[in-house]
Amino acid sequence: MKTYLITGGAGFIGSSISDKLIKQGNKVVTIDNFCDFYNEKIKQNNIKPLIKNNNFKIYKKDIRDRQALNKIFDENNIDIVIHLAAMAGVRPSIENPILYQEVNCLGTQNILEEMKVHDVKKLVMASSSSVYGNCKEVPFREDMIVDFAISPYAATKKANEVMTHVYHKLFEFNVMMLRFFTVYGPKQRPDLAINKFTRLMMEDKEIPMFGDGTTSRDYTYIGDIVDGILKSCDYCINHKDVYEILNIGNSSPISLKQMIETIGKALNKEPKIKQLPMQPGDVNRTFADISKAKRMLGYEPKISFEEGIQNFVEWYKKNRGLYE
Question: Mind telling me the catalytic residues?
Answer without folding.
Answer: 153
